[in-house]
Amino acid sequence: MWLTKWLTLLFVVQIFGDIPIPTDCPLSFDDLYPHCPNWDERDFDFIIVGGGTAGCTLANRLTEVKEWNVLLIEAGGIPSNLSEIPGMYIALQGTPEDWSFKAQDPITSTGYKNSVTSWAKGKVLGGSSTINAMVTVPGVPEDYDHWAELGNEGWDWSNVTKYFDKVEEMVKITRYRSNLPMRTTLETAIQELGIDTTGSSTFGYRDVPIQVNEGQRYSHAKAYLTPIRDRENLCVVTEMQVIGILFDEESNIQGVTVNDSFNNEIQEIKANIEVILSAGAINTPQILMLSGIGPEDHLEDLDIPTKVNLPVGKNLMDHMIIPVFIQEIIPLRGLATSLEHRINEYCENGTILDTLGITNFQGYLNTQNGSRLDNLQRPNVEIIHFSFPPQEPMLPITLDKFGYLDYYRTQLEEINQDKYIQMILIEVLHPQSRGTVELSTTDPYTQPRITPNYLSHPRDVQTVLEGASFIEALVNTNTLSNYRLVDLKIPECDQFMFESPGYWTCYATTFATTIYHPSGTCTMGNDSITSVVNTRLQVWGVPKLRVVDSSVIPELISGHTNIPVGMIAEKAADFIKEDYNYLV
Fold first, then answer.
1. Residue 335 gets which letter from DSSP?
2. Is 517 a catalytic residue?
3. Whole-number Å distance between alpha carbons of 144 and 63
4. Closest by alpha carbon to 195, among 428, 386, 465, 479?
5. Confidence of residue 583 (pLDDT cuts 50, 70, 90)
6. Is the pLDDT of residue 318 over 50?
7. How many separate helices (H) and strands (E) can be counted in the chain?
């Protein structure tokens, strides 16, 4: 126990300098997760690659069949104490619990260092459910009906509802209304615009629940692995990276090849029945392509023999965001409290950092005045708010994690010395732009090349402009009369009038970034020309191989992806049981 607390102290000192978590903060848990010291002495029926949201779900459900021995492999380690604190989630980015992917477009995101955007994805047991913002918004029924209309039979709302119910039974959530004054101020301003704030409508603002239980994060690792940590037919191995799929001489799947970091050696592990890739929308296509499953022309460029020619890494979708800032005109608010005070308060009383503040008060809007989007009545924009009182210590941390150039950080931090700042995210829920994930080398330890192609489709640009118009209208309400948009000095945008369409287009091009929902890189469908897996999530042309994670999503939903990925895994578990006659 003392070692765990010392490591926590060291971990936080590295992030916050002189602001450590107190060593007596009650965050440590002994034997919370399954262990498997003798994994190399056992035989396995299923190997699950990736211990994230989908992997944890599958591990639980497949080991319900007592005859099946299941190995769950996670490249990262056990969740840190810091990951338990809901209000500190942004600080987990760039740590060992994050893959720290970088994406780069040829034109956009020039406001960030080296013109790259930081794509945080969990490299830890629980995956991104251990480092994300814990928001649980599964979208609307029309999202899943549209999946079925795209050719994915059995994925309509009526057929996925029971799997969302199963996730809800396992994952503990907290519903709350922030008691911060800005929460009430925002609600009044939004009501001025005639927008619903009761949560009774598909459209409008509402307090969304978060994956928190008794003031601590409740990841899918806690929800699905902790209750079965003593299940004898489950083996969970951490700090082991899968670097390829193992085939025999006739190209039949045998298992996986791994780098065992503990023993510092490459090993092969066999699977008697199936290998399931649940490594996420970036790692899963990387593993497939390194193994010869992917676009033939791309593999040939890297001298990788093609086993199956499939559009792996294509169709990359992401919920792009444009961060916009507003500020007080006349300073009226007191200074922010220190991080040290908040951490101590959290450790002693479980308060302040036990929620997301006003960030769970979110807007889901159709900016086209209620017109039908893709013939479906659903939101096309999400609005998210972050609150920064004067001298807020989380502002420089947030700007650093986003990767803002020092030129822009300095402007915002100077304003925040004596004025309240709010960061408002315009999130495009149904982007038409499509990107790619490609191999940069044949080295499995080198990050793949991620090209989001943000704003490459004119509809996405128009949606951003409409979202910006909403922010302008919000700031112009009587309630927010003491606020104005921050006029960031952006050299590339000087030629445009502030708040004009040209300005907002330039602004969006400068600051387009991610809210960490990459999807679609192994999309499901009904043919091997346009999709990588069939509707039962089996890889086309590769028996004994499935993909179960966000990469199979055919189109992004009107919400956040973590809970839908859990649903996908629950449904996949039933597919597998049914295929082998174990579904009751």
1. P
2. yes
3. 28
4. 479
5. confident
6. yes
7. 14, 23
Contacts of 432 (CB under 8 A, 6+ apart): 457, 459, 460
For 46, 134, 289, 445, 562, the CA distances from 230, given in Å and listed in that order, are 18, 27, 35, 32, 26
**Which amino acid type is present at position 185?**
T
Q: Alpha-carbon distance 249 to 305, whole Å? A: 13
pLDDT, tens digit (0-9, with 9 covering 90-100), for 76-125 = 999 998 999 999 999 999 999 999 999 999 899 999 999 999 999 999 99
Q: Among positive and negative, which fits the CA dihedral 387, 393, 399, 401?
A: negative
Q: Are the C-beta atoms of 418 and 390 separated by less than 8 Å?
A: yes
In the DSSP assignment, the letter for residue 260 is E
User: Of 553, 521, 155, which Cα lies nearest the Cα of 310?
Assistant: 521
* Residue 564 host element (H or E): helix 562-579
Classify residue 43 by burial, with Cβ atoms within 10 Å: 0-12, 13-18, 19+: exposed
The DSSP element (H or E) to which 461 belongs, if any, is: helix 458-475
Residue in the block written with tokens 């939903």: 557
Can you spell out the DSSP letters for 345-362?
HHHHHS-STTS-GGGGEE
Can you tell me the distance from the alpha carbon of 206 to that of 199, in angstroms, rounded to the nearest whole number?
5
Q: How many CA atoms lie within 13 A of 95 on its CB side?
A: 27
Q: d(Cα 258, Cα 268) in Å, to the nearest integer?
A: 6
Q: Could you report how far apart the first and last alpha carbons of the chain are, in Å?
A: 42
pLDDT digits (tens, 9 = 90+) for 25-43: 877 565 899 989 889 889 9
The backbone region for 154, taken as left when phi is positive above 0, alpha when psi lies in -120 to 50, beta otherwise, is left
Question: Cβ distance 100 to 120 under 8 Å?
Answer: yes
| Residue matched to tokens 């101020």 | 185
Dist. CA 574–CA 564, nearest whole Å: 16
Query: DSSP of 121-178, one letter per residue?
Result: -B-BTTGGGGTS--B-----HHHHHHHHHTT-TT-SHHHHHHHHHHHHHHS--B----
Q: Which residue's structure tokens are 């190997």?
A: 47
Q: Which residue has the tokens 């040290």?
A: 340
Dihedral over Cα of 398, 404, 406, 412: its sign: negative
What distance lies between CA 494 and its chain's CA centroid?
Answer: 34
The model's pLDDT over 446-467, given as tens digits with 9 standing for 90+, comes to 999 999 999 999 999 999 999 9
Sign of the C-alpha dihedral computed for residues 493, 497, 498 and 499 taken in this order: negative
pLDDT given at position 179: 94
Residue 255 CA to residue 273 CA, distance in Å, equals 9
Of 220, 430, 517, 560, the active-site residue reads 517
